[in-house]
Specification:
The complex is a heterodimer of chains A (about 80) and B (about 230). With about 80 residues, chain A is of the alpha+beta class. Chain A has one domain (about 1-80): Mth169, Chain: A (2-Layer Sandwich), CATH 3.30.1280. Helix content of chain A is about 35%, strand content about 25%. In chain A, strands 2-1-3 form a 3-stranded antiparallel beta sheet, with helices on one face. The longest helix of chain A has 16 residues, at about 50-65. Chain B has one domain: 3-Layer(aba) Sandwich (Rossmann fold). Chain B is about 20% helix and about 25% strand. The chains are: A alpha+beta (about 80), B alpha/beta (about 230).
């Protein structure tokens, strides 16, 4: 089973990379581009067939390493859900 | 004074730190590899040098903060042994929870490598007693992720408890960009833990210990530690 952990910057945390992407999109001529925020997506193959257990394992991984709670939030999905 | 210097894959300021410590202490520090589960006992000081541990993968300091040696380091810090984290060492100290907040990508998105001026906020800690409170000193910075961030409540607590160690400040020369090189909150360059025994800072005092290599303002930090702990 594959877990997908999406890590995002918390609201209110400055995201200079998102800002740079935003201005690059505008300079490429894309009209109507508002705020851009950049995050991370981490895919984890898990040796686990129970969805609840897989989700719980991925959450523990996110809590302990994948996300920094000072600046980031995360969400967990399972592939195929 | 006997120090321990923790080295990770990708540490790259460990030799400068070792030289600075050897000069100040009169003997070389124990060098402890990140896979060790113990740090020699007793030591008076533990130093995490700068670098790009584990290639800055995931977040700067994220992997190093979870290395085997960190359990021993955190236990020693809780028992009162002073800990100094420089640059990537500061990032590791925030990642492992010994210091609050986080160090984010520089607001300019550029790597900064030049001298900065800093104000020494207080001169009554084991790290700063050789300085004068309010003194302006000059140290080099060299980092991509030095933009200190914490929520407003944490920042207010740091200020209220006198835990800002160094702040970027206007100097007479040497700073080719803005005074604050990375966009850090309240111009913070370094902070203490609540007992003033753990210090993390982005600038490099170990690179400012010899006149030949750009000044000696960093030497007082190591001499302060020797005065306090020897």
């Amino acid at each position: 089973m594959r877990a997908i952990v999406e890590v995002r910057l918390k609201e209110g945390v400055l995201d200079p990379q998102g800002k740079a992407i935003e201005s690059a999109l505008s300079s490429l001529g894309f009209a109507g581009v508002g705020t851009v925020r950049q995050g991370k997506l981490i895919e984890i193959e898990l040796d686990e067939s129970d969805p609840d257990a897989a989700r719980a394992a991925a959450r523990r991984m996110a809590d302990q390493l994948l996300a920094n709670p000072v600046i980031e939030t995360y969400s967990v999905e399972l592939d195929g859900e | 004074m006997k120090a321990a210097l923790i080295v990770f894959p990708g540490s790259n300021c460990d030799r400068d730190a070792r030289d600075a410590l050897t000069h100040a202490c009169g003997e070389p520090p124990h060098v402890v590899w990140h896979t060790e589960t113990d740090i020699p006992d007793p030591v008076d000081l533990i130093v995490i040098p700068g670098g790009f541990t584990h290639g800055d993968y995931l977040r700067p300091g994220a992997m190093a903060a979870r290395a085997p040696v960190m359990r021993a380091l955190i236990a020693r810090a809780h028992a009162g042994t002073p800990v100094l984290g420089i640059c990537n060492g500061f990032q590791i100290l925030t990642e492992c929870g010994l210091l609050p907040g986080a160090l984010m990508r520089n607001a300019s998105l550029r790597f900064v490598a030049h001298d900065v001026h800093l104000r020494v906020e207080r001169a009554d800690t084991v790290f700063t007693r050789r300085y004068r409170a309010g003194a302006l000193i000059r140290l080099p910075v060299a980092h991509m992720d030095g933009n200190y961030f914490a929520d407003d409540e944490t920042l207010a607590r740091l200020e209220g408890e006198g835990r800002v160690a160094f702040r970027y400040a206007a100097g007479s020369d040497c700073t080719p960009g803005p005074i604050n090189p990375n966009g850090s909150a309240r111009d913070i360059a370094g902070i203490y833990d609540e007992h003033l025994k753990v210090l993390g800072l982005m600038p490099h005092p170990e690179r400012a210990c010899e006149r030949l290599t750009g000044g000696t303002d960093g030497r007082h930090l190591f001499d302060s530690l020797v005065d306090s702990l020897a």
